[in-house]
Amino acid sequence: MNRPIILVTGANAGLGLGVCERLLIQLSSTMPSDSGMLDDPKHNVASTPFHASEGCTLLLACRNQAKAREAVAQLESLLHRLSTTDDEYLEKHGLPSPAQKNTQPATASSPASAPAASTLSSTSSSAIDMSSTSSLRHRDMTTSRLNSPLDQRTREARKMYRTSFCKGTVIDVVPLDLASLESTKACARTITAKVPYLTHIILNAGGAAWLGVDWLKATWEILTNLHKAVTLPSFKLQRSGDKSSDDLGWVWQINAAGHYVLAKELEPLLCASPYATPSRVIWTGSLEANEADFHAQDIQCLDPQTSPRPYESTKYQCELLALGMDQRYTSSTQPHMPRAYTAHPGIVATSIFSGVIPAIMMVLMKLVFYLVRISPTCLFDGL
Fold it and tell me: Taking Cα atoms as reference points, which of 81, 265, 72 lies closest to residue 172?
């Protein structure tokens, strides 16, 4: 049976872990809620082209193996909650948190309703009677289901699909350090040995050499242009010119070049997908991707004078790479080539900046994100 096989880089925390959680929740449904068009007033949903009734394989490509194991445990806990939550409860209340007790009613028939084995004779005729009784009971249960309301049968079918998905899903970890070409190629070899194909590669990992915040500039920007301060802040301080062990621009390599090499190495697996829908290479975009910060004469962002904002430059390069890859894929004569996309996560509270600002600032940031949800035009969702 075909199953989605998905690779996510930087999946041990933050946005990457959130993407993995969302994938499990959405693929466990026959009609994923995220498939609805946002500009459709009715928000009609559709079935996924990547049918996953037998589960999926989720590969977490991470540098920190300890955090990766913690992420696996968290995702397995999510699968357990998905598999044990009643469909009606899920529709009304959403997925219960790990701290909540699952109090929804059981949907399975009680084994107490079956006749006791001690009341049956051990003769062959009794064995036939038992078989007949079991067959009649199964037929009665089937008839009862068919006679039950349509919405109840639909909920039962969705629950069966979700339970089967959760039971068959496999979550694994592969080591990946994007700052090393050797590690990147080794990761591709490991994946090639593990799976026969890939349906999705989500290129999410990344970072920058953050130094801190220009607090004077931040205060002025918040007071004079709050919208810019919370969407396109110019007060973040970062270092430019760092090199990796491969003597390449470090920020450039972990954001753009390393991911490109990984996707190129795994291209044969993308082309081998058994699904009719082409496999997908999905780059995580950024609101801060800025053409003005990109300089062709310094694509690796090694010159602090030319490229003082390497994060913005390299995230813009990710968009260029996605466009270039998709043009190459669609113009290729090779059959079943993948497609490449850039997916924008919006404004999300992640830990990418947590190492350079006080913990209280992270708490306040999340608090503000919750408060702005009061607005009817708020787009803040991931926390």
Answer: 72
